[in-house]
């Protein structure tokens, strides 16, 4: 069965997409989770839906519209967060719902072909084209080029921004670069993974990883492993049970998280027992 | 003697209100300055201006371009659940402009171990910062300020959260460090610091520099810097000589 499974070109593409997606999401998601930006990311992802609708309406590649909306909302929230008078979470909720609303309006107004909204919520990793794969590879490369040499710097900025500023480091530049990458990751993955799966890939593997380590580097590696394992097992469930791939991947990621929690709890109580005996 | 940092007629405020006004301060390489003054008097504001976190409304601040300042902020505004080990926090004190892509090398880790030893936290190097008590965290952040062998060490309320014993250790440590490093020590509780420091800067909107650590409530009052000179030790006592009546 597995060889049959692997012989399909679209499955091979999906596996490759899962691997690159897990790597990119492992890095970016760890940043998002560590900096507690999950809600902002949710806002960006949903706001980009407005750009998607606009893209359909004016007849350009919807992904370009989505990228513009995603980047603008990400950079906008980062800019506004400098002012403490602004209630950041409220602003995010407004951007979130406004983006969805204009997306729906434009798609409704677009004559003729109406895209299936469900496919943007849960995506369809089985329809990944080779063009999508190249885009994903490009994004992964950009993420790695920023994170590999500047890993420590990013870690310190994220942990204690003011202290990093006192070392006269271009903190603001890095924060904008990073929120830009977060936005691009979220948006580029919408077509492949859908809005909901993007958020899952960016948070669930990272939280599984956090159960086992306080070292950001290890958390990234573990996230990639959890993300890829979840994606592949989700694809297999999707194939064998004939259920939608996006939903089954999310399901697998959550099951992995629960398993990880159980293992973690057991190993902690076992260590405690051993310590008590001595 | 050459100065490390010079503030000239520096003013700053929030919204419409001036918090500090016409502040002059020169810090020299062997100084040990105690900065005292009431809460809200502008002590931390001056520190943040020196550290480049705030831009003064007017006035100038000069320092050599390659100056290395070790800094302990007053409030630890960080996420205590951030996944980072104690050793990494201390190593972050080595972060400097110009070596932002640098990798941590073995001598850096040895240095971190030495500094953790100085602040009595060597046993906690691998622990998450969030697992520590407030006093332990403060020691780690003091370690972060020390690791780069700074030319100037600025400590904003360093003994907040820490217990009495470490407080005494810290003052001994600072006296040793002061042989090679200038120190600016900020406290709203003057009794604690006055015996360690050499000179005193009283900050209450204005800055009055007092070139010795012999100070009285009368002098403080004349500086418009009303501070209680009674310590909060086991038995309240006056640490400074009173003037003859």
Q: Key features?
A:
heterodimer; A: 278 residues; mainly alpha; 12 helices; 84% helix; globular; B: 245 residues; alpha/beta; six-stranded mixed beta sheet; three-stranded antiparallel beta sheet; 7 helices; 26% helix
How are the SSEs ordered, and which strands pair?
The complex is a heterodimer of chains A (278) and B (245).
Chain A: H1 2-7, H2 9-34, H3 38-58, H4 62-80, H5 88-109, H6 117-122, H7 130-159, H8 161-166, H9 171-188, H10 190-210, H11 216-241, H12 245-277
Helix pairs in contact in A: 2-7, 2-9, 2-10, 2-11, 3-4, 3-5, 3-9, 3-10, 4-5, 4-9, 7-9, 10-11, 10-12, 11-12
Chain B: E1 5-14, E2 17-27, E3 32-36, H1 43-50, E4 58-62, E5 69-72, H2 86-91, H3 106-118, H4 134-146, E6 152-156, H5 164-177, E7 182-186, H6 190-193, E8 199-204, E9 206-210, H7 217-222
Parallel strand pairs in B: 3-7, 3-8, 5-6, 6-7
Antiparallel strand pairs in B: 1-2, 1-4, 8-9
Helix pairs in contact in B: 3-4
């Amino acid at each position: 069965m597995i060889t049959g499974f692997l012989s399909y070109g679209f499955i091979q593409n999906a596996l490759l997409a899962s691997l690159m997606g897990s790597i990119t999401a492992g890095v970016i998601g760890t940043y998002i989770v560590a900096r507690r930006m999950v809600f902002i990311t949710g806002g960006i992802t949903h706001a980009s839906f407005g750009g998607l609708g606009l893209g359909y309406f004016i007849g350009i590649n919807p992904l370009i519209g989505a990228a513009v909306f995603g980047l603008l909302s990400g950079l906008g929230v980062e800019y506004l967060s400098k002012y403490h008078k602004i209630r950041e979470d409220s602003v995010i909720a407004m951007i979130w719902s406004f983006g969805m609303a204009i997306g729906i309006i434009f798609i409704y107004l677009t004559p003729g072909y109406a895209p299936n909204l469900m496919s943007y919520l849960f995506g369809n990793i089985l329809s990944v084209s080779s063009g999508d794969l190249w885009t994903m590879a490009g994004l992964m490369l950009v993420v790695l080029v920023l994170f590999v040499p500047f890993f420590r710097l990013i870690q310190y900025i994220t942990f204690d921004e003011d202290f990093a500023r006192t070392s006269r480091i271009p903190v603001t530049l890095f924060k904008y670069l990073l929120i830009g990458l977060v936005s691009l990751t979220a948006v580029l993955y919408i077509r492949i993974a859908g809005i909901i799966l993007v958020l899952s890939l960016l948070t669930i593997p990272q939280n599984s990883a956090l159960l086992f380590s306080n070292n950001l580097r290890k958390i990234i590696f573990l996230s990639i492993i959890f993300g890829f394992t979840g994606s592949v097992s989700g694809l297999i469930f999707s194939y064998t049970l004939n259920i939608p791939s996006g939903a089954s991947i999310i399901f697998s990621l959550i099951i992995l998280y629960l398993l990880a929690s159980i293992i973690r709890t057991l190993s902690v109580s076992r260590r405690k027992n051993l310590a008590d005996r001595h | 003697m050459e100065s490390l940092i010079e503030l000239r007629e520096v003013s700053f405020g929030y919204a419409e209100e001036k918090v500090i006004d016409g502040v002059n301060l020169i810090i020299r390489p062997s100084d040990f300055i105690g900065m005292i003054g009431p809460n809200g008097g502008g002590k931390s504001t001056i520190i943040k201006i020196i550290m480049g976190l705030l831009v003064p409304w007017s006035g100038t601040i000069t320092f050599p371009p390659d100056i290395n300042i070790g800094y302990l902020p007053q409030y630890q505004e960080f996420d205590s659940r951030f996944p980072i080990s104690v050793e990494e926090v201390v190593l972050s004190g080595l972060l400097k402009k110009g070596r932002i892509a640098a990798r941590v090398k073995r001598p850096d880790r040895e240095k971190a171990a030495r500094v953790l030893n100085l602040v009595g936290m060597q046993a906690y190097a691998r622990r998450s910062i969030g697992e520590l008590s407030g006093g332990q965290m403060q020691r780690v952040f003091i370690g972060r300020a020390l690791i780069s062998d700074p030319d100037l060490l600025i400590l904003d309320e360093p003994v907040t959260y820490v217990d009495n014993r470490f407080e005494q250790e810290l003052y001994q440590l600072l006296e040793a460090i002061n042989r090679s490093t200038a120190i600016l020590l900020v406290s709203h509780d003057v009794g604690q610091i006055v015996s360690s420091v050499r000179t005193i800067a009283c900050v209450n909107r204005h800055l009055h520099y007092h070139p010795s650590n012999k100070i009285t409530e009368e002098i403080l009052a004349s500086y418009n810097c009303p501070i209680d000179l009674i310590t909060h030790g086991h038995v309240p006592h006056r640490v400074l000589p009173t003037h003859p009546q």
